[in-house]
Amino acid sequence: PDEEGRAVYLGEGIYGDSVFVDAHGPYIVPFTSNLWAARGLRAAGLAITPVYAVTQGNVIYQAARIGEEL
Which of 44, 38, 33 is nearest to 61 (CA)? Predict the structure, then answer.
């Protein structure tokens, strides 16, 4: 973070309104925002399987399937 505790902006991302920010530590492919989203949905009580959430398509597929069951 910068002196004021905010993320340091590095540039535009490649998807929608995504951006790149300065970070520390290694990037590990399976630990993407898709996994974070799946874990959040699971924590909210939905029957999402985060291990399958490698792509956004799978997260959306799982969420849509659950929506159909409701």
Answer: 38
Q: CA-CA distances (angstroms) from residue 12 to 16, 19, 21, 30, 39?
A: 9, 5, 9, 22, 25
The DSSP code for 65 is H
Per-residue tokens: 48:
């999402």
pLDDT digits over 7-20, tens only? 999 999 887 888 89
Gap between the Cα atoms of 39 and 19, Å rounded = 21
- Reported as a single tens digit per residue, the pLDDT across 21-46 is 998 888 777 778 888 888 999 999 98
